[in-house]
Amino acid sequence: MAIDKQHPDYPEFKRKLDALWEEFGRIAEAERAKYPDWRGWDHPAEKVLHPIRKKYNAKAAAIWKEYAYLFMDNAPPGE
Q1: How far is residue 2's CA from residue 8's CA, in Å, rounded to a whole number?
Q2: Which residues contact 73 (CB under 8 A, 6 or more apart)?
Q3: CA 71 to CA 77: how far, in whole Å?
Q4: Using 50, 70 and 90 to split pLDDT, how confident is the model at 40?
Q5: Angle of CA points 72, 74, 78, to nearest 5°
Q6: How many other C-beta atoms lie within 10 A of the C-beta of residue 13?
């Protein structure tokens, strides 16, 4: 699957998706900052971030669905 970066709507798609993940990144950074000395995969912030991440993933999926026409299937015929 490839995206048509030449389509006139691509910049808007990219802007929306980038803004969404930048917003989540700020939230995640602030939550992780509450535990400055914590290292490892079991970071306490994940308890808070997991449901927020799910919400942002759903928002991202909605953006991808809204711009589904930008995606092209480059698989060879018959596959």
Answers
A1: 16
A2: 1
A3: 17
A4: confident
A5: 120
A6: 20
CA gyration radius, the chain: 17
11-38 tens-digit pLDDT? 999 999 999 999 999 999 999 999 988 8
What number is the average pLDDT over the span 43-60? 94
* Nearest residue to 23 (alpha-carbon basis) of 34, 35, 15, 11: 15
Both structure tokens of 18:
């980038």
Q: Which tokens is 48 given?
A: 């808070």
Are the CB atoms for 67 and 7 separated by under 8 Å? no
70: which DSSP letter? G
DSSP E strand stretches across 2-79: 2-3, 71-72
What CA–CA distance (Å, rounded) separates 71 from 48?
Answer: 33
